[in-house]
Automatic annotation (TrEMBL):
Entry keyword Cytoplasm: yes
Compartment(s) where it occurs, according to its Swiss-Prot or TrEMBL record: Cell membrane; Cytoplasm
GO biological process, one term: synaptic signaling
Organism: Pediculus humanus subsp. corporis (Body louse)
Membrane topology annotation: Peripheral membrane protein
Stated name of the protein: Dystrophin
This protein's record includes keyword Calcium: yes
Length: 225
């Protein structure tokens, strides 16, 4: 009787054990679902944040790209270095204005670099190769503009210094020419006073030719400018 009672009790408990096992499975399944759902939500939040950062990055990239394109076009339209003071002065003003704007905009380029570094640091598990490449291109274009305008400034200052030196050379030559003409006039006066008629006639024919040649020399070297 005891054996039968035990067997009967065990049989009657079987549904309870089955229910407990089912409950445990459901609990584990629910825990797994909660964990998976949490990871999915976390990844979604990360992707949403990445989308926001990417949109800010792209908006800034387009802004900087448009500015660089405008400045590159402006630089290309600058004429060759002039040869006169008024042209050089205008070109120097243009160069200084360009360089000042370039320096002021550096803040935006640095901000763009900051956005890039944030994307690379926060999303290390994602492919940021394209972002790095685009940022390198932006920085290279900015550096090229800066180098070009600095070199243009040096060329303009060199041309202006050469022009000033040229002006001083002209002043010295004119002073020498005036002094030479005065000396020739003095020689001519001395010939009139002391020389023979034949010498006077020869020198009077020679002196105008000397003056003409001096003027030809002057215009050959300086008249073209």
């Amino acid at each position: 009787m005891y054996f039968l009672s035990t067997v009967s009790s065990t049989v009657s408990c079987a549904p309870v054990f089955d229910h407990l096992r089912t409950c445990l499975k459901v609990t584990k399944l629910r825990e797994h679902w909660d964990e998976t759902n949490s990871k999915v939500l976390q990844r979604k939040a990360q992707l949403d944040a990445m989308l926001g950062d990417s949109q800010r990055y792209e908006a800034k990239r387009q802004e900087v790209d448009a500015w660089l394109t405008r400045m590159e076009t402006r630089l290309e339209r600058m004429g060759t270095v002039g040869h006169t003071a008024d042209v050089l002065e205008a070109q120097l003003r243009e160069q200084k204005s360009f360089h000042a704007e370039l320096h002021q905009y550096k803040y935006h380029v640095e901000l763009f670099n900051t956005l890039t570094q944030k994307l690379i640091a926060v999303y290390q598990q994602d492919d940021t190769t394209k972002v790095k490449k685009m940022t390198e291109q932006i920085n290279q274009r900015y550096n090229n503009l800066n180098t070009s305008i600095v070199n243009r400034g040096k060329s303009l200052h060199s041309a202006m210094n050469s022009l000033h030196n040229f002006d001083r050379s002209i002043d010295k030559f004119l002073a020498w020419l005036s002094e030479t003409e005065s000396s020739l006039e003095g020689v001519e006066a001395d010939v009139d006073r002391l020389g023979t008629r034949r010498d006077q006639a020869a020198l009077r024919q020679l002196l105008p030719r000397i003056k003409v040649r001096l003027k030809i020399i002057f215009f050959y070297f300086f008249g073209k400018s």
